[in-house]
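To whoever is covering the structure queue this week,

Two jobs came back overnight. Logging them here so there's a record in the thread.

Job A:
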Amino acid sequence: MKRKKSNSKKLGCTSAILVAIVVLSVFTLAITPASAAHLALVTRDLPVVVALDEEFDVTLDQTGFFFGMGTVIETLPDGFEYVAGSYTGSGDVTWDPVTRELTLGFREDNSVTYSVTASSFDQLAVFAGTYSTVVANPEWDPEDDDPPFVLAESGAVGPEYEVGVDGTDPYTDGHSPAKGATGVPVDTNVVVHVKDNFAVDPNSIKMGVDLVDVTSQLSLVPLGLGDWLVTYNPPGNLTYNHLYTITLDASDKAGHTMTQDLYTFRTEQAPVPDEEPPEITNVGSSSITTTTATITWDTDEVSDSLVKYGTTSGGPYTEQEYNAADVMSHNIGLTGLAPNTPYYYVVNSTDPSGNSAESGENDFTTLAAPDEEPPEISNIASPFVNTNSATITWDTDEVSDSLVKYGTTQGGPYTDQEYNAADVTSHSIGLTGLAPNTTYYYVVNSTDPSDNSAESGENDFTTLTEAAYCFTIDFVTGYNMITMPLDDPSVMTALSLINKIGGDAKEVFKWNSATQTWVSYNPSMPPPAAFNIVGGEGYLVRMDGSASVEFCGDGWTSPFDMSLVTGYNMMGMPVNDTSVTNASALLTKIGGDAKEIFKWNKGTQSWVSYNPLMPPQAAFDIEGGEGYFVRMSGDANVAFTGEPWQN
């Protein structure tokens, strides 16, 4: 490479004059520094990647130097050395290996070069430098002595430049198929990454397949300077059961050539021709409506789906539905069917090799046409009316839900309503929160499962005057087994029951039939919460003295539904059901799973039992306000019907 000598040239007459002007300006006008907006610029150009110990040129270009005069100080990276005598500029050059500063003088130079030797070790080296010069002052006025016509300026040589010193060969990884792979699909591509610690030379990448150069067919995608994705997409499928040999060569930008990557892989065996038809299993029909049905089946290999069907057993099957998708779980929907009609069908599946199988005949029947007739409502009544509640009953000729709309204005509007979604033919709706001694007007409505609705004409009832019923219970010292005879609004919880009875009532027990355990409430022993007091349950009250307590309120709803579970159940008669006069009648009322009844004799503070299988026990009387234990061998629901208890 030719280089200019570093000795300074003698300046001509013009240059000498300019130098004199600059010097004069410096000493007589005290040159003003340039403003923040730079008027001069120095840029650097050098390779991106070089080899270890490689000698290369660095080019500096300037603009804005006054008559091309200035100084650049370059700081060379560790391990780099200036090549003596390589500077091509007209000014002086000084290299200090200790500070690693290279000082370059510009004398009427726009572009200069110098040479360096790269380090002997891998690194990402950074070149940095500064310049100083004088520039023409764009705001100078010859008639004005201040500011001067030139300005001092300094700045960074831009931009900082990174040079990779690369002493490492490129390499490959990410092979697909993997090296030594077997069973490789014949429709695969050959993919590999060529990598380098700095930069791969893509023009050097070459691939051979079974000694055939396929470089011209490669796709090269840069994932970075040091990572190129190389893909060979064969013009057709590869050969079955063939051992392919792949060679790959490449170099990096520093000129290092990698050791040739040579590896093999073997493709899959050729498939054995399929001559077996699919095996059809689990044929069935589902989601049957009046006009649609779904036919499903399974096969042991992927195949298409065909259903042939008609209304004649054994055929001909006049209709068919087909799906070409190759699946193992088959699903075909049939539409446009006739209601309440038997259909006969066979299913057929053909695999991709053309082998076909067909099932035997199966059948299904569509549903009948929908119900379009509303329920017929009859026997509307309000048999149980109390001060604050009433029960409305009616019958329908088909199962349907239950709705009562009611209010205090004859003919409506009916401002309140109660609803039960259960589909039944005997309907019963309880109304609560009513005003005493008030006439209510109501209609009943029932809608069947097909959404056909019927509504009755208007009916009415009048609630009783307030506190129509009262019932007295006598408590003794010790334990007393009771039930609430009436819906006394002053008794809602165990605490309010204790308060109702008075100071001698100390503790209330209830029986948890679900867990078959006692639950107690004693206001002097927190923190257990006071449980609710409800109709039909029995309670054990511990007394420190005797008391006679009158309970007043509405009667419990009649009929009163009660659920009894297997095991022991603590209950009481919610209403005066005249069919239950003694323990034997109560067992009969509950049904065959009721085996034994116990009552508490508060006079003797002992249990009395009745079991019809263990004579000669007499069946004791069943009375209002008393609680009983019933032993059950199974679950049962029982409804008690009667008038409210009263004195």
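Job B:
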Amino acid sequence: MTIGHTEERMMALAQSALAATNDGRVNWTSVDDTATAFKADQIAGSVLIESVDRDGVFPYSLSVFDSGGRKVESLKTGWYVSETDFEDDREAFEWNDLFKALYEAARGHALNIDTVINSLINDFDIPF
């Protein structure tokens, strides 16, 4: 399928945010107690990646906010609707895997998952 300008820009933003996250150049924070929405504040605004259903899995949504906190754009994962609308005929949006990867990276950073797991592994390795 052909994607539009907005979708291309949101994918570029997600790719940049993912690369910055993987390089340790961005700070993600958990937005609420559900730990299913994560925000990265930057000078020009902020980015929010979240599990739409608040269950920690698909579907995901990427939202962009300006420096004043106003939502200026958002894009959700999903599928193109086919003429038959059979699940086997549906094609996933091009950004689905990218948003999932960004969500997982943001979650890992915000919740400090690797550090917690590594510390627990070390704790269990200490003899009593």
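Note for Job B: Helices lie at 5-22, 96-110, 113-125.

Please reply-all if you pick these up so we don't duplicate work.
Q.
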